[in-house]
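Thanks for the sequence, V.! I ran Dolichyl-phosphate-mannose-protein mannosyltransferase right away. Repeating your input here for the record:
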Amino acid sequence: MNSIKKLIQKYPALSIVLGFQCFRFILLPFMGLMPQDAYYHFYGENFSWCYFDHPGMIGYLLRIFTIVFGKTIFVVKLTDFVITSLTLLSFYKLAECFLSKERLKYAIVLIASTFFISILSFNSTPDVPLLLFWTLSVLFLYRAIFENKKASWIYAGIAMGLAFDSKYTAILLPIGLLAFTLFCSKHRKLLLSPWLYISLIVAVIFTVPVWLWNYENEFASFLFQSSGRTDNISKFKFSPKYFFGAIGHQSLLLLPILFGIFLVFTFKYIKRFVTKFKLPSSKILFLLAFFVPTFLGFFSLTPIYWVKLNWMMPSYITGIILASIFITKKWVRYQVIVSAVIHVLVSLQILFYLVPIKSDDTWVGWKELATEIEELQKEHSNSFVFSDDGYKTTAALNFFMEDKVYAQNIIGLRALHFDFLGDDLTTLNGQNAFFIDSDKRFKNEDKKGHIFNQVNPYFEKCTELDPIIISINGKKVRKFWIYYCENYKATP
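Predicted structure:
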């Protein structure tokens, strides 16, 4: 005990970081499967160079870990934890390039204590590999530009390509690079350097599979991620709910103190540029080039568009380094205290499920639902299972059940990447099916009393069964409506 105490006293920052990471690791076995975990695991089980709604890096990583360690919920969570831990290590190496030893301690404590690192450590999303490759891209670009390491241009290109293979938000990396070279007079000569363009070409080479898949599928993924959102933004409908919702989300992910520092230094640099037309030093400008387009770009949309809580995450990498320049030791201490309290509360929710979550975005009930459905299938042979909620129920059941579970393409609706599996639905003609519908609000144990209008034309008869009620720690927390549908017709 004395040796541990001495170690903490000698390396307090390291102790805090390891403390948060150990806390997260200890919670991993208690985390249930999230629908996102299941959906991106489904990516890995159905290999493709790209997928309808995202590139496939998170799926590839989950597949590798599953092959090595087996298909369990813990292994899925372990994948996220390991990749995010590598992001923290990469962040440390990046922050080391800009900060003094004391400020470097602030930076690593700040990022390790944030709630967004916990989310990335617990929940499989494309942001998990994106943040790793984003951090590596910025690190290698720094070494290429400021340390004149030619090989780093190649490494940066590879990292930028892999970041794009993780999530399309990575397109902001080359935009940030070009913006830096344009605004920084000291390094503007890079625009004439072949190494910059070699780096960009390497990045493009590593994204070729994504482009090829999109070309072969009428650019379905690119259009899904762009056209619908562009249409909504172009309507320019002001909504205070969106704006204050974004502030709430960002305050949760970064915690209020760090988010406040973000707003302060963003305002400071913008004011200096607008009033004095004065740019900061080249290193600060470099950090801002990979912060402003993502953070300020998405934040500026919040009054008219619902910006998802994870869209700004890449900006946190250089943003936290900038925040470490301004923050004092006292506020770092407050950040850690607030973070510790929030993480304890979250752990109580994970362990005891104190507050029911009125949403399908929860880690409870999926395995129990799969067990109940398998029992029903034993009573009704030659039956398949499908759902109609985007991807959540279908993906979760596919993780736990041996038989294939279908999505809403069974009833002629668009079904994300489930539409691209090459399924011949006519082979199901004549079979019976169980249709699963989640009651997100769950106010009572009654039947629903009706079925979606879209379902009836595809079956001869649909009968509602008693709903499945899921209990956790003696409390009834989830409810699923169940329908037995007879004699499927792929073409109604």
